[in-house]
C-alpha cells in the first residue's frame, strides 16, 4: 500500500439538465479527478466539483504542495496523512484551495484502503447498508414559480418524500413567501419542503421572512445569511420556529465550532469537498455529541457511506447531477438511497469520459 503515483485529470462534461441557480451559470460539470496508485496496483479515486472557477489552481495545489508529501507513504495511514498535509499547508490554508485539494486526496486514500480490504467504506467504518432518506434537490429559483413546483412534483412522482426549493436572489420577499405557500399547497402536508436561501439575506430579512415561512411547516431554512455570520445564525434561530440548516460552505470541524457550542443550528450540512471523509467523520462525531443531525451537502454517492456509519444521519441530498457519469449509478428508490456494496466508495467514472470530455478552460 505504499503510494507510488498520484495523477490528476480534468473533465468538462455537459449537464443533462443544467441547474438554474439564479446566481451561477453552470453548463458543464467541471471535475478534478485524483487517482492514487499503490505499489500493489491498488488505485483509489477522489474528485472535486468546485462549481466555480479555480479547478486548475486546485490541480496545481495538489501537484505542487501535496504530491511530494505523499509519495512513498503508506496509503493506509489516512488520518496521519491528513495531518501531514494540514501541517504542511497550514500557513497557506486552513480553508479554501488547500483543504479542497486535501479533500480530493483524502477521498482517494479511503477508496484505496477500502479496495485493498475488499470492503465498502460503510463496512470498514462499522456501519450497516440500510437505506437512508434522500430529498429531491434542484427546484431552482431560476425555474421560476411554476418551474419550481413542476420540478418538485416530478420528484414526488418518483417516490420522494421531501424536496428542496430556493428563495432570495431573484425574488422579492413577498414573492418568496408566495412561492413557498404555493409549493405547500401543490404538494400537500405530507411532503417535506426544505428552503434554501444560499446566503441571500441579511439577519433582519431572515427573521422577517422566516417568521412568515413558519406558517408553511418547512423542514428547514438553509443558509439564511453568510456562512461566517455565526451570531446572525444564532439570532435567527432564536427568532423563528423553523429549524436552521447550514455548513456546506464551512471548512473542517474547526470552522463549525460555534455551531457545536451553541447547538442552535440543529442540521449541519458538511460538504465532502471541504474536508474529505476524514473530516466528515470527525464533524459527525462532534455533531452527535452536541445533539445535532448531519445532512451532507451534495455528493450522495460518496456521502452514503458516511450516513450508513453514523448514528445522527438525517437526509442525503440528490440532484442527479452525476448519474450519467458513473459506470454503475446509485439510484434512489422510493425516496431512499442505500450505499454501494462495492469495495471502497464503489463509484467509478465511465472511462470514455476522459477521452470524450477533456477540460475546457
Please give a quick description of this structure.
This protein has 361 residues and is α/β, with parallel strands linked by helices.
Structure description:
The protein has 361 residues and is α/β, with parallel strands linked by helices. It folds into two domains: 3-118, Enolase-like, domain 1, CATH 3.30.390.10; 123-337, Alpha-Beta Barrel (TIM Barrel), CATH 3.20.20. It contains 13 helices and twelve strands. The chain has helices spanning 55-70, 78-89, 96-117, 121-124, 144-157, 173-187, 203-213, 230-239, 252-255, 257-262, 276-289, 300-307, 353-356; strands at residues 3-14, 28-38, 43-48, 132-139, 162-166, 192-196, 220-222, 244-246, 267-268, 293-294, 316-318, 336-337. The strands form two sheets. Strands 4, 5, 6, 7, 8, 9, 10, 11 and 12 form a nine-stranded mixed β-sheet that branches. Strands 1-2-3 form a three-stranded antiparallel β-sheet. β5, α6 and β6 (192-196) form a beta-alpha-beta unit. α2 runs antiparallel to α3 and α7 packs parallel to α8 (230-239). The relative contact order is 0.14. The model has no long low-confidence stretch (mean pLDDT 97).
Structural class: alpha/beta
**What is the global morphology?**
globular
Order of helices and strands: EEEHHHHEHEHEHEHEHHEHEHEEH
Overall structural domain count: 2
Quaternary structure type: single chain
Q: Regions with pLDDT < 50 over 5+ consecutive residues?
A: none
CATH topology of the largest domain: TIM Barrel
> What percentage of amino acids are in beta strands?
15-25%
List how many beta strands DSSP finds.
12
The CATH level-2 architecture of the largest domain is identified as Alpha-Beta Barrel
Q: What proportion of the residues is helical, as a percent range?
A: 25-40%
CATH class assignment of the largest domain: Alpha Beta
Tally of alpha and pi helices: 13
Going by CATH, what is the homologous superfamily of the largest domain?
Enolase-like C-terminal domain
N-C termini distance: 35 Å
Kindly state the mean pLDDT as a whole number?
A: 97
Question: If you compute it from the alpha carbons, what radius of gyration comes out, rounded to the nearest whole angstrom?
Answer: 20 Å
Let me know the largest β-sheet.
Answer: 9 strands, mixed
